[in-house]
Amino acid sequence: MTGLVRFDRVSVAVQGRTILRALSFDIREGEKAVFKGKSGSGKSTVLKTLLGVYPVADGEVRFAGRLLDRDTVSAIRACAAYIGQEPVLGADTVREALLLPFGFKAHRGKAPSTGRLAEILGRLGLAPLILDQHCSRISGGEKQRIAVARAQLLGKRLYLLDEVTSALDPESKRAVQDFFSDPALTVLSVAHDPDWIARCDTVFELQDGRLTAAG
How far does the chain reach from its first CA to its final CA, in angstroms? Predict the structure, then answer.
């Protein structure tokens, strides 16, 4: 597999507080990696640093061999999907949320059919009836899966996931795990869920912003 993401002794400070300390790791294309550790250990900061939300104070971040800069961040955001614990879907109904990006110039004329929407939702353990539900009436776990479905419809291949299975029942969790087992998808995740962690290729453990274990 080709190297995709590299952190080389990266340190990140937010509002004067150092969050990541000399962090180094590599992620290959198609790899499923997870960061675990106590709350406040810097797990989510790793994902947001890759997206350019937090500046690198020291060290280097590279994506596909390119040093992280404004152009590289744009390239990452074009191919990546960040799914947080409470995604904002930006529409009234689930159908409208899934079709929202296809109203923009870059995706105009490429809107998927209802059958395609139902197919993607089904792979994530969601029934087609959810398409007509109001977004304010669905659970956080359902919102996360709808955000994943929207990213898949847009052809995203890099997924940055923050606790995507924590609120799911066992059946829904298996559906999500199976979805992300696709070798075409690269996954960098944050999780406490032992079932999710067991399905990952690589497990990184963080403590106080430092990598204490990898395997």
Answer: 17
Contacts of 215 (CB under 8 A, 6+ apart): 202, 203
Is 10 a domain residue? no
**pLDDT tens, position by position, 141-164:** 999 999 999 999 999 999 999 999
Decide if 135 contacts 89 (C-beta within 8 A): yes
- Domain housing 98: 30-52+75-214
DSSP labels, 151-194: HHHTT--EEEEESTTTT--HHHHHHHHHHTT-TT-EEEEE---H
Q: Point out which residues pair with 10 in neighbouring strands.
A: 23
Residue 95: pLDDT band (50, 70, 90) is very high
State the chain's maximal CA–CA distance in angstroms: 50
β-strands 66-67, 80-83 pairing:
unpaired
E strands present in the chain: 3-14, 17-28, 32-36, 58-63, 66-67, 80-83, 158-162, 186-190, 202-207, 210-214
Taking residue 165's Cβ as centre, other Cβ atoms within 10 Å add up to: 26
> Count of domains in the chain?
1
pLDDT at residue number 85: 87
Checking if the pLDDT of 74 tops 80, the result is: yes
CA distances 156 to 148, 169, 193, Å, are 9, 25, 24
Confidence of residue 1 (pLDDT cuts 50, 70, 90): low
Asked whether residue 155 is assigned to any structural domain, the reply reads yes
